[in-house]
Structure formats: C-alpha cells, structure tokens
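thread from #wetlab-drylab

HS: before we spend reagent money on co-crystallization trials with L-MYO-inositol-1-phosphate, can we at least see a predicted complex? here's what I'd submit
DV: go for it
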Amino acid sequence: MMGDEIQDFFKTGLEVAKEAGERVKTDFYRNKKIEVKENFADLVTETDKAVEDLIMSKLGQKFPSHKFIGEETVSAGGHCELTDDPTWIIDPIDGTTNFVHGIPHTCISIGLAVNKQIVAGIVHCPILEETYTAIKGHGAFCNSDKLSVSHNQELKGGVVIIEGGTSRVKEILDAKINNTKALIENCHGIRAYGSAAINMCCVARGSHAAYLEHGIHVWDIAAGKLIVEEAGGVVFDPSGDSLDIMNRRVLAACNKEVAGQISKIITNISLERD
Ligand code: LIP
C-alpha cells in the first residue's frame, strides 16, 4: 500500500473523528442513558453506540472494501478478527466511565491496521481539546506539536500509569494490587486517567515513564501504540515479549530500559484474547 493512500485514509479518519468529537462534546454536558455490559462497573452509553455507528458508516461509505473492529459492535456479539485487509479499529468513547461522571479525560480512538500493522492512529480528546495523531514513519503529534518520549532510563525517576480496569474478579484484582504496590515502591508516583488511549498519549508526550494495564482490548490501544512508537517509545507485552495486540495486556514505556525494569517487578496476568 502506498504512502499517499495511507495519508488519504488518515485524513478521512481525522475528519470523521472530529465530527464524532462534536457529538461527544454535546452529550458530555447532558444527562446520559447508561447501560452495563460485563458487570456493574463496565458501562456503555447511547453516545458510545451512536458515535460508533457514525464513524463506521462514514468510513464504510468512503472505503467500502475496508474492515472494521468496533468496541460496541463486538460487545453486541459482532466479529473481532484482525486480518491482513485494511481494518479500522475503533473505540468510540475510550474513557466511558469518565464520560459518564463528567471527567474530561475521554476520547475517540481510531487506529488503522494494514497487514496487521498499525499504520495510522488518531486519539481525539474533544473536552481536553487535544488531538494526538501518528502516521507510520512520520512522527507523532499533539495538535501541531511534535511529540517525544522522556529520555529518563530509570524507573525510579519516572511517573507510571496503572489502571484498575473494569474486572471485579478477586484473583485479577489481587494481582493488580500487588503490581501497583511494586510500582509505587519503585517510581516517583502512580497515576490513572481512565482511558488507555490517553494513558498512551501521556507516555508519548514525555510526561510519564510508562503505562501498564491488564484487561484492555485491541480498540483501547491500537491508535495509542503507533503514537507511542512514533514519539520514540516502545510498546511490549508486560512480560517483556513483543506485543500481541489481541492479547488484552500492554506495557508502553519511554524506552526498553524502563520497560525491562517494570517487567522484572510485576506479575503478568492471563486473560481471554480478543
Ligand atoms: C477503558 C480503558 C481503560 C480501562 C477501563 C476501560 P472504555 O475503556 O481505556 O484503560 O481501565 O476499564 O476498559 O471501556 O472506556 O472504552
């Protein structure tokens, strides 16, 4: 696939993300219709569904041969298969719990995979008014500012993001609490912004040394993975192995030294694949 084609796909993806952002912004300040998915803490709103429909129909009209993986379509029993075909991987609202509670860290995350590699990524945060973008080989940006990860090589000198997630399974929570403790003991501080995509952009912009989460899905990290890598960072499986994007766990870091120091002190958790 030619670079010009990717640029064209990206341009359309960005236009659609911004249009979707207007809907998210309007609904953010209104009462929301909320439903639960896997458990009481796993939320979806009518806005999530409407925004996913909007993105898929606009991109589908423009690129009829492309495939789609969307959070709400998969949650409703749809297909979650990553093939070599151009595939748009969409989280219509990443940070749904934030959206529900009026916390501004919420975004639209759109990644485009070709031959199973992410070639374009868009994380549009309509309330924060930040749009993170990357095209493979062309760097990563926040609005028009070029992004660069931190050069710090010591975990002990950085801030790390670790999320609680939506699972309420005791064994998973126990492992996450142990990992949280191990991180607190070994870094300046921990944070959690409630959106995997925004967490990854925090690593890309250089303010955070790393982000660790078990339990995420491919739509949470597809765009962010490329944004971190194009800002000079690394994205691995938390074990230190290469990332399997469908394997529901992620470790993004400013460099492989910091990633390695985290892999050594945490316990990996196995989850059902996407
Ligand atoms: C969210 C992730 C976040 C995780 C939440 C949730 P959603 O995605 O981005 O990192 O901790 O549990 O999965 O559901 O808001 O798209």
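DV: The chain has eight helices and 14 strands.
HS: ok that's useful, forwarding to the group
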